[in-house]
Design goal:
Helix content of chain A: 40-55%
Structural class of chain A: alpha/beta
Distance between the termini of chain A: 54 Å
CATH architecture of chain A: Alpha-Beta Barrel
Oligomer: homodimer
Number of strands of chain A: 11
Shape of chain A: globular
Strand content of chain A: 5-15%
CATH class of chain A: Alpha Beta
Largest sheet of chain A: 7 strands, parallel
Strand order of the largest sheet of chain A: 1-4-5-8-9-10-11
Largest interface: A-B, 35 and 34 residues
Chain lengths: 371, 371
């Protein structure tokens, strides 16, 4: 059953494309002057918000929440109602592509994502095809179109995907893994097989992110959650190369504006120079790298996103504000910084501290930008 | 009940101190010429060996295995019987100190280490004292003395401890943690309290490692398993400082030889220069840092230990040998390398691949050392 796209139903894009009222986030990624450092937070729509938990409970399953555009739109907008954020990110999961490839994504409480089928052999890989976006991933596009319309130009909407290596980790292991025995066994013993898998995943991500742009995404994130589990040479060969292929395969233009893309390899602090050379606009930092050092290393090539330790949000509101001020000072004067945590916000954080973070970024950052 | 120490029973140390037949490991840490690169592997005595699993089953509990010197000695020696290793490491746990402080260490299958009591407040910290080594940790010293005697000078015996920050993580969280909410909450909100905890832990580790030297340990390792979870500034303030205090508080001499110490912060590849300045002999590398780059960064200051991805052992024997050769070539000619994995060996690895690793190090490394 092919569901009609909302975004295809709207023939005249101008009808739904409202003027963007707050473009700080887009400008910062293009290294253009801003009045304040923009801020958004990974997993800003999520379990730490009681209103999210309500919708999540109503949906029954996590996948129902992701695949019901109305609900995905609702939870995407929730944090925007509470906090003065500079961007929204579509509520979805990084594993929608393998699910669309037929692997059967489901979530087991306390164990995270699981796949009913796994990819272990050359024959398994041969059976994979780039999913039909309308047929299999239309629900993501519908959620994006709907959210874009609901946002009404308030802030830009970010689309995203997992990186090919990260998707491969889950597809081969069948879920999360402590040691990546199977996926790394394939990497080391059957590199050609691994490259075949990564190649079809890269093509799928390109189609997926271009469809997201078409549906209304104004910026993109590539989440390379497990790139940091690799050696430098293997990171380059099995993760970075495919992310670079994606960057080069994207439209990167919508409504006459550039669609900036940010690459985030968790634990990738040693490889920032490499990421900066891929043609991305932004590079995400976790908190194990000093942002002032990172800025020296990447120069004017890219904007840096990050990099507060998410655990600071377990401390007092005053401590949160102090840490925000420290990171802004560390980055220093000038353009090229998008404030964020160095990882997704933890589910047990007090939302008041999130409010404090967002306000502190705007309050303390004005001094670092030209008036 | 105070058990008499084996090592105290032996008044004449010369009786048990056999001439060291293979001192490659000690020489490499002191940057002295060796004929081949020495090799040992973290968790070389462990679950991947069927003979270990037998003794473990016999012991009933993991803590019984650790605290029964005969059994700890037996499993320490097991890998030496199979593989041509250049060092033994005493079989024990990194959490013996908090257990000796009265926190009640136990192991829950599938969940790892747990403490019956946790440290959450200033009052909790005030109650802690440096444990009496003979009374509370004599079993470790007995295991070391016994193993040293059984080794009969075959290879040196390594003693070890968890770092203060790593111990604090487990003591505050009460076990392993995905997000370190409580221990980081304390770090950010009550830094003085955290410093008080780390200070008594550093004093305890100094007493513990000096007792291990006295009991017969010929080299030491500091395992900073969770230092990599910190920001650079926090790593420096809350982990590195206390490891440096320990390094400065150790005897570092036994039987007329220097007792070298190696510091290993998992995920600490960005801070190698800092570690190299603490006065340690060796710095451990995980596999996310290129060893040739690391060597350039630390210069002649320290020996580097590492740095093979433990998952290579899931691949074929030929691939294992190829990877060993690559790492040796990456390090290049000259002294200052101890071969190891970048993390403990995984429990489901085939022991044949461990044999292949050890043999490959000796086979391929001779060319990089002066004849």
């Amino acid at each position: 059953m092919i569901k009609p796209f909302l975004y295809l139903q709207t023939q005249n894009q101008d009808e739904v494309v409202a003027e963007l009222k707050n473009d700080r986030y887009l400008r910062a990624l293009l290294r253009q002057p801003v009045d304040r450092t923009p801020v958004w937070v990974m997993r800003q729509a999520g379990r730490y918000l009681p209103e999210y938990r309500e919708v999540r409970a109503e949906a029954g399953s996590f996948m129902t929440l992701c695949s019901t555009p109305d609900l995905a739109c609702e939870v995407t907008l929730q944090p925007l109602r509470r906090f003065d954020l500079d961007a929204a990110i579509i509520f979805s999961d990084i594993l929608t592509i393998p699910d669309a490839m037929g692997l059967g994504l489901h979530f087991v409480t306390g164990e995270g994502p699981k796949f009913s089928s796994t990819i272990r052999s050359a024959a398994d890989i041969k059976q994979l095809a780039v999913p039909d976006m309308a047929d299999k991933l239309g629900y993501v596009m519908d959620a994006i179109s709907l959210t874009r319309r609901e946002l009404d130009g308030k802030v830009p909407l970010i689309g995203f995907s997992g990186s090919p290596w990260t998707l491969a980790c889950y597809m081969v292991e069948g879920g999360t893994s402590k040691d990546f025995a199977k996926v790394k066994g394939m990497l080391f013993d059957a590199p050609d097989q691994m490259h075949a898998l990564l190649d079809i995943l890269a093509d799928s991500v390109i189609a997926y992110l271009n469809a997201q742009i078409e549906a209304g995404a104004q910026a993109l994130m590539l989440f390379d959650t497990w790139g940091g589990s690799l050696s430098p040479a293997n990171y380059r060969e099995f993760s970075l190369t495919y992310m670079e292929k994606i960057v080069n395969g994207l439209t990167r233009k919508a409504d006459g504006r550039e669609v900036p893309i940010t690459m985030f390899t968790k634990g990738g602090g040693q490889w920032l120079e490499w990421m900066a050379e891929t043609g991305v606009n932004g590079v995400g930092l976790d908190w194990t790298t000093d942002i002032s050092q990172a800025r020296k290393r990447v120069g004017d090539k890219v904007t840096l996103q990050g990099n507060m330790d998410p655990c600071v949000l377990y401390a007092s509101g005053d401590r949160v504000e102090q840490e925000v001020a420290r990171i802004l000072a560390d980055f220093g004067r000038g353009e090229g910084h998008v404030f964020n945590l160095g990882h997704g916000i933890h589910p047990t954080v007090n939302p008041d501290n999130m409010a404090r973070l967002v306000d502190a970024v705007h309050k303390h950052s004005a001094q670092y930008h030209q008036s």
